[in-house]
Design brief:
The protein has about 260 residues and is of the alpha+beta class. The protein has helices spanning about 120-135, 150-155, 180-185, 205-220; strands at about 10-15, 20-25, 50-55, 60-70, 80-85, 95-100, 105-110, 115-120, 135-140, 145, 170-175, 190-195, 200, 230, 240-245, 245-250. The chain is globular. InterPro entries: PDZ_sf, Peptidase_S1_PA.
């Protein structure tokens, strides 16, 4: 609590993909309930934001101004937004608000003047699925992806550059998790993610949105929630690899290894 009072809490739900945790706790005073659904604001690239946190040592409340960027950092979670607010480790988990006081996300630890925030709509989606189904399933291919223009920046050896036939690629595989379905099917870094369930993949953001939609369908046990990806190997562009995502619970620690 703000005055240093410690309360006993019980773990309720945990999500290793988004690094979210909900707790059950009996407060000493009646808390004021804030409906995040009525306190949402549009997230706009370049908007002014304020990050809030409270020191774990002195319990002092502090804040820092900055701007939000829609393009997510390479942190294994494509829904993350980036801010240039200074968020020290002791401030992790505090709210990120706009100038009007609307909550637009939760702060995550970041480096000096470069931090990450999980947007409010993503948080609400998790809470709603937990409330309705007591669990959340996510499609898992075992890959990290990256926009091709960013991938090229990571290629230090010119001899490893994508060939001319693949220079129109939009999204490439950055890393492959050992033991995953992608690993077992010989998917490699630099391969193209061509389609998801027949939809052409053009951006990492689009890829993330399709995974989120598939997650809700799998959690609700809706029919036809299988998710298939077509991968174009960078060194064999005519030999497509077709893989099906595994639906695993978000409390599976495989997510925390990224």
């Amino acid at each position: 609590m703000a005055d240093g009072t410690l309360l006993l809490a019980k773990e309720d739900h945990v999500d290793y993909y988004y690094n979210l945790l909900t707790l059950k706790v009996k407060p000493v005073v009646e808390p004021e309930v804030v409906d995040l659904r009525s306190r949402q604001a549009g997230i706009v690239d370049g908007m002014n934001v304020i990050s809030f946190g409270r020191s774990l040592l002195t319990f002092t409340l502090y804040g820092d101004r900055g701007k939000l960027s829609e393009y997510p950092p390479s942190f294994g979670c494509y829904e993350l937004s980036a801010t240039n607010c200074g968020i020290p480790e002791i401030g992790e988990g505090g709210p990120l608000v706009n100038d009007e006081g609307y909550v637009v996300g939760i702060n995550f630890f970041g480096h000096y003047r470069c931090a990450q925030a999980l947007p409010t709509p993503t948080i609400l989606s998790c809470l709603e699925m937990w409330k309705s189904f007591s669990t959340v399933l996510r499609p898992w291919f075992g890959i990290r992806v990256i926009d091709v223009k960013e991938y090229r920046k990571l290629v230090s050896n010119p001899g490893k550059e994508l060939d001319a036939s693949n220079r129109d690629l939009s999204v490439s595989v950055k890393e492959v998790h050992e033991g995953s379905v992608a690993y077992k099917n010989n998917v490699k870094s630099g391969d193209k993610v061509a389609t998801l369930n027949g939809t052409k993949i053009e951006t990492v953001k689009q890829y993330s949105q399709l995974l989120s939609e598939a997650s809700r369908a799998a959690t609700a046990c809706e029919s036809g929630h299988r998710l298939m990806a077509v991968i174009n190997p960078f060194d064999r562009p005519t030999d497509d690899i077709i893989i099906e995502a595994n639906n695993i619970s978000v409390d599976d620690k495989r997510f925390s290894s990224w």
